[in-house]
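Reviewer 2 asked us to include a model.

Predict the structure of this chain.
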Amino acid sequence: MAQKNEQSKKVSEIERMRHSFAHILAHAVMHLFPEAKLGIGPAIENGFYYDFDLPKQLTPEDLPKIEKEMKKLIAEELPFQQLNLNRDEAMDMLLQQGQLYKTELLNEIPDEEVSFYRTGNEFMDMCRGPHVEHTGQLGAFKLMSVAGAYWRGDEKRPQMQRIYGVAFKTEQELKKHLENLKELKNRDHRKLGKELDLFLIDETVGQGLVMWLPKGSQIRKIIEDFEYKERIKLGYEPVYTPHIGSLKLFKESGHWQHYRDSMYAPIEIDKEKYLLKPMNCPFHAKIYSRKIRSYRDLPIKYCEYGTVYRYEKSGELSGLTRVRGFTQDDAHIYFREDQTKELVIETIQATIRLITAFGFDNYRVRLSLRDQKDKEKFIDKPEAWAKAEKGLRDALKEMEVDYIEEIGEAAFYGPKVDFLVKDALGREEQCGTVQLDFNVPERFKLTYIDENGKEQQPVMIHWAPLGSFERFFSRIIEHYGGAFPAWLSPLQARIIPISKKFNNYAKIVKEELDKRDIRSAIDERDETLQAKIRDSEMDKIPYMLVIGKKEQANKAVAVRPRTGADLGMMKLDEFIERIEEEIQAKK
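Predicted model (structure tokens):
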């Protein structure tokens, strides 16, 4: 137990608090429903949850009752005390209590002594901890929802009821979080995607399969073109690869052995088995290996917007964030080992340029490493892993980049640098990734001829600065609340004539905007001016250009940004210069 206790010291204060709230939640539920069976109750981002097998189906109306019971317990300033029981004692106690889910967990713990935490004198839960010293140290909380959750995530096991809560150190922080949640509902990409007509997921087409509508496709094309130009500057060459590949290919790459649960079942064609591709890298490796390479040829850089398919359980699908088919902004670099630091630095710098261009200035860098004890999840090539991890560390240190290390978050074939971006509401999610790989080149027997005429194995970088277009697009929608900056907006200006008499001048304005590649449209509907302005604001179009007699006479437009401010009459050339500067600055 000493090792576990040592590890527990590294847990943050807020994590201890949230974990302790989970125990108080279980304690309160046992008070209200003594026959409840307990599952697990961890701390999670912004809060906690606990799984219960209960004699009744909970409703949202039950949450205030449970909250009230929790507050009673918290007010008593009950101590959290760790107790170590031997396995037999622990099993006898859990069986006597009828806590069968806990006995299942106990059977998987190899230690002879098992850690429990007691709250006050009556509630005890099997747990490694750590916790706060007493309930008086707990901050502010609120129970948020009840959801179904299969025991151990297995749909063949009993379905339990999961109660979610949020918790913060202060009431002020909790209030701010609840306000953010309210704002998040307004920014939800599923809601805005429908309102702004950006994308469609239709059950008849299939769950988790995205159709990009014209406006969404326009934004996607802008993103692709911007990123493509950046890559061409760095010497990347575009390639295209099939949507299916032979099972033999994915066995050679190692995906079948290490990634099978996330892949679709093989399809048999002419007595040969094929798979919907889950990754692009095996195809790129084959493109590299098609001919003899010289050390002078390296580095070789390929890029592809490649659509891949991965099996996600239907209950885990969610809008654009969890889908079954998505397009990655994939790139692979093949190079000599002595070029490692230079190319890792280049890709990290390029990733930072790209994510910040889209407005994600707030980000953290994570070095994701393998768990050396997990021989099944990660390719067991210690020497290759050591070189790859050193290569990434050396580059990060030379760049003087602050980073954290995370064990177990690597790809199965190599370590990676992940970029964790925060959006406008402070939510953090993984975005870009730079993966250094000595293993896949070995599996595919990739070679080049060195200056002495000998065969050598290249090193490989897997680079996806944005990740998947679907997930990145969901972030973009929610970050901006659908009010995209002018350079990303599918329509940058809507021309609004105050009556049909000015439609011809509206067309002249549009022609001038078209000449300068400013995306515009004319609202020729037989509606009032107020209705047209309101609809443009609802559509979140950056600029409305109102035109009437005065504007026509002065070759001008009345400029109204979507913020509602009225900039008044402006010469058309002056407006074009203004919006071009804004587009160029990507603000």
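The mean pLDDT is 92. The two ends are 54 Å apart (CA to CA). We have added this to the supplementary material.
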